[in-house]
Task: structure prediction
Amino acid sequence: MFVQLHWIDILIILVYMIGCFVIGLYTTKYIDNAGDFFLAGKSLPFWAVGFSIVVSDIGATDFIGVAGNTYVNGVSAANFDWLGSMPAMVFAAFVFVPYFWRSGVFTIPEFLGRRYNAAVQLLNASIWITVMLISLIMMLWTTADDLVRTMLGFDPYYTVWIMAVVTGIYTFSGGLSAVVMTDAVQLVVMYVSGLSLLALSLWEVGGWSSMRAAIESMGGQFSTHFTILLPNTHSEFPWSGIVFGLGVVLAIAYMSGNQAIVHRTLGARTEWDAKAGMLLGGFLKSFIPVMVALPGLCALVYLPHAIQNDPNAVPAEMYQMVDTESGPVPVLNERDRVVPTMMRLMLPPGLQGLMLAGLLAALMSSISGTLSSASTIFVTDIYNRGRQLLGFKALNEKSALHWGRGFTAFLIIASSLLAPQFDRVDGLYNFIQTVLSLFQGPTLAILLLGILWPRANRWGALTGLLLGVLFCFAMWCVPNLFPAEDPFLYIAMYSFLFALVVTVVVSLLTPPEPEEKIRGLVWSSVVQDPAAQAALNARIEA
Result:
């Protein structure tokens, strides 16, 4: 099983896995009800919120996918963190988080249900359950196939089940508390291992200057590898899509409307901790592009030397020779195998185990966070809300806890069974972003209008969300509509604008929401009216 690893690497990985398992199970004693399971009893300090947001957002898919994109497209891929995270997290901290936290909700769909109606809540919840299941599947299969099989030659089918079960057990037992406590450990492991890979990668290629000179000498398709914003004709990352589609729409939608991210702030002990945690997460994320993307650049220089020195270092079927101005260069066929190949060839004993533990840490955090968020959405917004609409009593705290754990177990089994179906997906990061782009633009539109514009109503939100999603699928069906090969950046941007216009128009044509219904849920009555907040708190407590 571990034939390619030194015993010290195996020991590091086992100690890490067992440590996370024990920490997760330890939190079980603090779980007495649904509030403890879903929101950690609203006891999380700001540093735990910030740590957890970062490590849950940066999974093995990012280490592998962003490095792979950098390998193919250059430093422009780092914009997914520079433009796609930090500014959006600051925006989320001051515009969205205060309303979510003050409203006392468990989920973002629940907030939409209070602001609009049950139909908007159920539709948004169903969308996010679907997206989260796909994300779980992709995270599991990427790690099992692209990482573990490349490093160890281990059957990915078994790896999927091992990772799902280990992570699922402590999430099942301790809920959000277990997720956040293990996230703190996983952040340290991830940063130490990631920075170690970066440092050694730069050392092996002779530093930044030597690496840049070597890549620039290749010319041709590598001539723009050090251009931050690529021309608008670029097939994957045109600058207009990056700036507007990513920076303005997808980034804000992800950091403000994604339950897996916002979930931690909802469990914060105070509003200050919720906002400070999001800001701390933005600061910590500023190091991620360097740590994740640069090894992909280093691989363009390192791998040819490794193959030249040892023709068997990389199997012949994994690369092809590409003609450049400096001569033929071996380039990997699958971008998602760049980091695993670098780890296997470059890292000495001890560092291999540490790096593999770091990637597993990133994966486990993302999986546990997604499991916790998805189970919270299912119980709060689908099952419990559905019961109430059908005339049944709402779940009590104990029943909600049992259903949350049950759905967590279901997700573990379902994602593990479905993971092998994604065997043929290349360009993992782009695939996930494509899935997200189908829903995040319309979701952001109704969230933004719901908080900032009191006139937005249930009919506008429902129509905007539904037609916005359909508009996304329609754009995908039109061939060559956008210049990009994977046009998710443009689709997110135009679907946001479309849903925004539809929501405004329909809201103006239909009766407004009663003032007493939206008090405490919109900008004017939360920030500027303390009495409205007091009324909201009384309504929540009742």
Notes: Residues 7-28+54-254+286-423 form a domain with the Sodium/glucose cotransporter fold (CATH 1.20.1730.10). The radius of gyration is 23 Å. The CA atoms of residues 83 and 243 lie 7 Å apart. The longest strand covers residues 319-324.
